Amino acid sequence: GAGVSQSPRYKVAKRGQDVALRCDPISGHVSLFWYQQALGQGPEFLTYFQNEAQLDKSGLPSDRFFAERPEGSVSTLKIQRTQQEDSAVYLCASSLGAGGGEQFFGPGTRLTVL
Amino acid sequence: KQEVTQIPAALSVPEGENLVLNCSFTDSAIYNLQWFRQDPGKGLTSLLLIQSSQREQTSGRLNASLDKSSGRSTLYIAASQPGDSATYLCAVRDGGSQGNLIFGKGTKLSVKP
Fold it and tell me: How far apart are CA A22 and CA A68, in angstroms?
């Protein structure tokens, strides 16, 4: 596709439910990043993939958060046993090379936990 | 720990004015700096990327400068238009990171017709 796509765009979950958020990066992009953006704040880093390898997961807030990119393209961010504080916009970004370079963002998934 | 600050938090200007948005960062050992715009309910659109070895980048009515030693960047918007209304975010990539960006909280710009 022409840009980074994410689905679903909006997700409402009841507290305790599991959710899965999908990211389709720009075709051929090696690097993929997940960020979390709370209302009125800048995005905060969650995790980084270089192809299928998860090289940095230092930003994941708890062990309820899990991300994968098994074939080096599409990535899924999974949140288990959702809590109200997980409510945020989850943004995915990709870049062509390994690590550095311009990052291109998707439209985000707005997660609301009731 | 790298921290990015953007001033002002909000700015309202009449159409046609030239304006400057400010970004500062605490650790000068950065790899690059990127400016984004974010429209309400949307993702981030990349505006300009400045490598650490560069002093400025230009795209149309936008000009971004970088003074790495003083930990500052500015985004200059010439002849502002109502369509420029958005939140502008500054982000840096630390030299020692795997590539993740550290963001400021943004400047919300409103351009009045």
Answer: 10
Residues 6+ apart with CB under 8 A from B32: A100, B49, B50, B51, B52, B92, B93
The burial class, CB within 10 Å (0-12 / 13-18 / 19+), for A21 is: buried
How many angstroms away from the CA of A99 is the closest CA of chain B? 4
> What tokens does B6 get?
């953007």
Cβ atoms of residues B86 and B39 within 8 Å: yes
Q: How many CB pairs under 8 A join A and B?
A: 66
Tens of each residue's pLDDT in chain A, 114 residues: 589 999 999 999 999 999 999 999 999 999 999 999 999 899 999 999 999 999 999 999 999 999 999 999 999 999 999 999 999 999 999 999 886 688 999 999 999 999
Whether the CB-CB separation of A44 and A52 falls below 8 Å is answered with: no
Rounded CA-CA distance A22/B107 in Å is: 29
B102–A contact, CB cutoff 8 A = yes
Give dist(CA B98, CA A49) in Å, integer: 9
Inter-chain residue contact B43 with A59, CB threshold 8 Å: no
Question: How much is the pLDDT for A1?
Answer: 52
Nearest Cα residue in chain A from B89:
A42
Chain A nearest-CA residue for B95: A100
